[in-house]
Amino acid sequence: MSRGRPRTAGADEAILTAVRELLTAHGFAGFSVDDVATRAGVGRQSVYRRWPTKAALVVAAMSAIAAGAPPGTGTLAGDLRALVQRTRAAYAGAQRSALLDLHAAMAGDPAARAAFEEQFVAPRRAALAALLSEHDSPADPAVLHDLLAGPFLHRLLTTDTDPDDALVGAVTAALIGAAS
Amino acid sequence: MSRGRPRTAGADEAILTAVRELLTAHGFAGFSVDDVATRAGVGRQSVYRRWPTKAALVVAAMSAIAAGAPPGTGTLAGDLRALVQRTRAAYAGAQRSALLDLHAAMAGDPAARAAFEEQFVAPRRAALAALLSEHDSPADPAVLHDLLAGPFLHRLLTTDTDPDDALVGAVTAALIGAAS
Amino acid sequence: MSRGRPRTAGADEAILTAVRELLTAHGFAGFSVDDVATRAGVGRQSVYRRWPTKAALVVAAMSAIAAGAPPGTGTLAGDLRALVQRTRAAYAGAQRSALLDLHAAMAGDPAARAAFEEQFVAPRRAALAALLSEHDSPADPAVLHDLLAGPFLHRLLTTDTDPDDALVGAVTAALIGAAS
Amino acid sequence: MSRGRPRTAGADEAILTAVRELLTAHGFAGFSVDDVATRAGVGRQSVYRRWPTKAALVVAAMSAIAAGAPPGTGTLAGDLRALVQRTRAAYAGAQRSALLDLHAAMAGDPAARAAFEEQFVAPRRAALAALLSEHDSPADPAVLHDLLAGPFLHRLLTTDTDPDDALVGAVTAALIGAAS
DNA sequence: GTATAATCGAGACGGTACGTCGGGTCTTTCG
DNA sequence: CGAAAGACCCGACGTACCGTCTCGATTATAC
């Protein structure tokens, strides 16, 4: 079928790793695609062959973070509590500025937005939906997701500080309340 | 006294208006400072004389939206309900992409972040704090603010759709619950 | 001996033909080696297997034009006159831009220069030398060659127009005069 | 009329000088526009603001060489002789590769060709025309120009050696003969 | 009225990143 | 092996935008 030299194994991951490191170290505006290529030990064209745009590249690099195994407590409340803790972690620490910059990367780039939605948001929403249906909750997964991640995101964007326990408690209570 | 030619009356507002229009039409990355100057019928330097940076300029343009008079129902629950409605409006419609891009603009620009915090976030938080103290609620205004605006912001950033009634209801319930 | 798959018959000629067409149509800088390969229905590597460089490739494509059988009038003057006519033809018409670009191709490429010298210039100079010795002329063949081809080349490079009769007449006169 | 910051005095010349040096040292393909800008102590955009293309830039750099004061012997033959000597000098020595590369620069760039024609060829042809009319010669200046410069150019392009005395003599004789 | 001084529109400036393109090499699979 | 396909590294191209810097021309206060 398709012939020709196959893409260098591991190059994709080397590039994405480079992006993640640079994103954490210098922020979205603080590195160029050329920096990425150099750090990944790759030609610049090899980056553009895989992702059309710096924004798309960053989205791809971030989407790997989105992965999430199911909690697995017995009760719905327990599972939600675990979920809140995990979300808190996602919006805290080193990830912070990277996530901020991810949003920056997508401004005015609908394709990147769509990729983000598909690779980053959808899995988390799906996990939530699975959890709700498992416990026969009639709540809307999209609403719960907004209720879960929104407050952490808002704190991150407006304050640039890690979420505190008061916020975690409030979110947990709100979530459990909304799940009926 | 101050000598020299006074700044052209109305230039500030012409510039900010141009920013708002361009922000709505093309997004943060979709226009240059030069575009702003041209559209405002002003030299580029006249923009930079007033705001040091594109991000700062955009923050200033957006902060006008932040204005908010206190609700004024009798009950705490009623006031919170009104506040949710107003917040929903702020995160819906034409403002949407502008707000999104505003956040984008501030990534990696601490000065702009601070300006945004001061001009955009603080007033809303202050209004909330006043409301809470007026009704003797012990709740943390910062937490309530995150709980109030976060879900709308999250939906905006991830979905690019207007908030629906289900979300409004959930946020209202969460807020009233958190205010004890 | 040599084993393995033999080179595809006719590929060489297909490639050179493609080069000639592209040279005429778009000029040296106006096509890539990839264009050549595509048009010849050949892989790019098959081109590089045969010629080391784009310039060398173009030289090879042009050298086929250089072919020249001896004139064969009785007199020296008659033979020179015929030679001028033939040279005029070489520097006119469709060949024009191709020849121009050939010279361009060789700038800064000594190997291509040498190949051009060997395949393109030498035969014509040899023909001239044979002609002169046949008629016992003491003139320097190199000088005569410059006097013969130079004016046509100059007109081509500076004017991009075909040589006119006045130029042909002047060249002929100069040549006959120089051959004593 | 047009206001705004005037172009930096001397920048044009600094750029052209840099081009000439780089052309002599490394040849047309041996330097980038960025090299030019760096060497001239100028931003790259300042180069592109003045000349649209690398080729156009090189043409401009070379055209300064074209300058030529009139000879001024008493006789037509003497003037032509002087002209030949000067032309010989133009096509010899350090200029050589630069001139070669100039032709390379213009391949496939009609605008550059036109600029070259206007700035480089026309003045020399005009000088020749003036000379001929001064001495009441009916000869075609264009033809004489081809006859004068062509042989030197041809030797340069094909041989990459300086013109020798034999060539100078032949060109002189041809020229005087053609001028009647 | 005549300095003095700040602002204005215009646009050039040095930098830096963008995304594209081409050259020449390397590496697959298929014949 | 040769061939077609296509990925690879490298580096130049020309464009765009940022934030700064001159210009000459206003337009005000201050002397």
Quick overview:
The structure is a homotetramer of 180-residue chains. With 180 residues, the first copy, chain A, is mainly α.
Folded structure, characterized:
Four copies of one chain form a homotetramer. Chain A has 180 residues and is mainly α. The first copy, chain A, has two domains: 11-62, Orthogonal Bundle (Arc Repressor Mutant, subunit A), CATH 1.10.10; 70-178, Tetracycline Repressor, domain 2, CATH 1.10.357.10. Chain A has nine helices and no strands. In chain A, α5 crosses α9. Chain A is globular, with a radius of gyration of 18 Å. The mean pLDDT of chain A is 85. Chains in contact: A-B, C-D. Chains C and D meet through α6, α7, α8 and α9 of C and α6, α7, α8 and α9 of D. Chain B binds a DNA duplex (31 and 31 nucleotides) through residues 1-8, 11, 32-34, 37, 41-46, 48-49, 52-54.
List keywords for this structure.
homotetramer, 180 residues, mainly alpha, Arc Repressor Mutant, subunit A, Tetracycline Repressor, domain 2, 2 domains, 0% strand, globular, DNA-binding, DNA-binding (chains A, B, C, D)
